[in-house]
Write a structure and sequence with these properties.
By secondary structure, the chain is of the alpha/beta class. It is built from 10 helices and 8 strands. The chain has 2 domains: about 120 residues, Oxidized Rhodanese, domain 1 (3-Layer(aba) Sandwich); about 100 residues, Oxidized Rhodanese, domain 1. α4 crosses α9. The longest helix is centred in the middle third of the chain and has 12 residues. One of its GO terms (molecular function) is transferase activity. It comes from Pseudonocardia yunnanensis. Keywords: Repeat, Transferase.
Length: about 280
């Protein structure tokens, strides 16, 4: 029997209850965007007790791909499985991922692990800051983690390739989840700019479900579902997670603009929004 899924986002109080009730089942992963400390995280005052540090660039992506695969191409399933077992993930684990940059890196981990076949993965809403703000301790101790036995594959989440992304962009249904400045510097022609951080409050928590759906233009039950993209599959993964929180399943263009722009045959638009003052190559 397949284990039931868990919420896309879990709050601090609920996580505390999970850890109290089933401590051996919960695996905590702190996702670092850049272990060297650039890009918004790196070393902090500590991590949640028991959390394993995971590097987004080398463990949730692969480094042997062509530029046209994007800046953050998906890891090989066998490599990801080896990493996940080193993190202590078991077949019955409930995995909670978090970060220190408003959930974007954690959402990449959530997406990759769901793509690899895990159903019990949640993002800690508000991340490390929310945990600390609730008065819970941090530690710099490295956890003693027994090797896991998880089995991972691929294909568990809907994806877009460049042609599918282009088709959605042409119909106005491709969302670029980067901030406005990155979008202006270059984007897929026709993509709409809907920054992921627009659904977050100042404490890093989500608005209500109706607000999230409205942010991405999914305002009715029969509204068409957009595809998500960004620069390299991080902010876009957060948008997928935010929509999944509302019950909407959206596909991700994993390669996103970093893959698109590496292909000289693909046109690139600049400027604020399609149809305004853009230049194309």
């Amino acid at each position: 029997m397949t284990a039931p899924t868990v919420p896309v986002f879990v709050g601090v109080a609920e996580l505390e209850k999970w850890l109290h009730d089933s401590p051996e089942q919960i695996r905590l992963l702190e996702i670092r965007y850049d272990q060297k400390g650039t890009g918004g995280d790196g070393d902090s005052a500590g991590h949640l007790p028991g959390a394993v540090i995971v590097d987004l660039a080398t463990e949730l992506s692969r480094t042997d791909a062509a530029p046209t695969d994007g800046r953050r191409p998906l890891p090989h399933p066998a490599d990801l499985q080896r990493s996940a077992r080193r993190w202590g993930l078991r077949k019955d684990s409930t995995v909670v991922v978090y970060d220190t940059r408003s959930g974007l890196s954690a959402a990449r981990a959530w997406w990759v692990l769901r793509w690899a076949g895990l159903s019990r993965v949640s993002i800690l809403e508000g991340g490390l800051q929310a945990w600390s703000a609730a008065g819970h301790p941090l530690t710099t101790d490295e956890p003693d983690v027994a090797p896991g036995d998880v089995e991972l594959g691929s294909g568990g989440m809907p994806e877009l390739d460049a042609d599918a992304a282009a088709a959605l962009a042409e119909s106005g249904l491709l969302v670029d989840a980067r901030d406005a400045a990155a979008y202006r510097d270059g984007h897929i022609p026709g993509a709409r700019n809907v920054p992921s951080q627009g659904v977050l409050s100042v404490d890093g928590t989500l608005g209500d479900r109706d607000e999230v759906r409205a942010h991405y233009g999914v305002t009715t039950a029969d509204a068409p579902v957009p595809g998500l993209s960004c620069g390299g599959g991080v902010a876009g993964a957060f948008a997928v997670a935010a929509l999944a929180h509302t019950g909407v399943t959206a596909p991700l263009y994993v390669g996103s603009f970093s893959a698109w722009s590496a292909d000289p045959e693909r046109p690139v638009a600049t400027g604020a929004e399609p149809g305004t003052t853009e230049e194309s190559r």
